[in-house]
Design a protein that fits this description.
Blueprint lengths: L6 H6 L3 E5 L5 E8 L3 E16 L5 E13 L3 H8 L11 E11 L4 E10 L2 E13 L3 E11 L15 E12 L1
Antiparallel strand pairs: 1-3, 1-9, 2-3, 2-9, 3-4, 4-5, 5-6, 6-7, 7-8, 8-9
C-alpha cells in the first residue's frame, strides 16, 4: 500500500498553472424538502484557477454563479435565489479558495481553504480525488454542508439544513 506522502511526487508532476474549463465542469446539490422529497439542482462554475507547485502543493479558486441555480422548478428556483436563501441580488457568487492541499490516499488530497456563501466566509476542508493527464486535471469531491453555517437558516415543512454538494471541476494546463 502506498503511503499518503508517496502521492506528493505524483502531484508535483502536474506543476504549473491550470484554468477551469466551465463547459466540462459540473456542480450539483441534493437536499430534502417536505420531509421526504429530494431536491436536486445545479450551479454553473464561471471561473477557476489552480497552481500546483514543484513540491506538489496546490492552491486554487473556484467561482460559482449563484444566480445560475437550477432545480428545474422555476418557482422554487426564485425562492432559493431570494433573501431567504442565497440572496443573489447581494451575493451573486459562491467562492471556494484553496490555500493548501494535504496528501491523503493515493490520488486524493484534502483541500484546506475557505468557502464564501451568502456573504459569509468559513473555513472548509474538501476531500477530493485528482485525476490528471499532461494537460487536463479533474478534481472531484462530494461534501455535506450545513447551510446554516453560512446564515441560511430558512426552513419550512421539514426541509433540511444539510446539503450534499458534488463537484467535478475540469482544469486545463495554462
Amino acid at each position: 500500500m502506498t503511503s499518503p506522502m508517496e502521492s506528493v511526487p505524483r502531484l508535483s508532476t502536474l506543476a504549473g498553472s491550470w484554468t477551469l474549463d466551465p463547459s466540462r465542469t459540473s456542480i450539483t446539490f441534493h437536499t430534502k424538502g417536505l420531509w421526504i422529497f429530494g431536491v436536486t439542482g445545479s450551479f454553473h462554475a464561471v471561473e477557476g484557477t489552480a497552481t500546483v507547485g514543484d513540491d506538489g502543493g496546490i492552491t486554487g479558486r473556484l467561482v460559482v454563479d449563484a444566480t445560475s441555480l437550477n432545480t428545474k422548478n422555476g418557482k422554487r428556483d426564485e425562492h432559493l435565489r431570494s433573501a431567504d436563501f442565497f440572496d443573489v441580488q447581494k451575493y451573486p457568487t459562491i467562492v471556494f479558495t484553496a490555500a493548501e492541499a494535504r496528501p491523503a490516499d493515493p490520488g486524493h488530497v484534502h483541500l484546506d481553504g475557505a468557502l464564501t456563501v451568502h456573504g459569509q466566509t468559513r473555513p472548509l476542508t474538501v476531500p477530493a480525488e485528482v485525476v490528471a493527464t499532461d494537460d487536463t486535471a479533474t478534481v472531484s469531491a462530494e461534501i455535506d454542508l450545513d447551510r446554516s453555517n453560512w446564515g441560511m437558516t430558512y426552513t419550512k415543512k421539514g426541509s433540511r439544513l444539510a446539503t450534499r454538494v458534488v463537484i467535478n471541476a475540469v482544469f486545463v494546463k495554462s
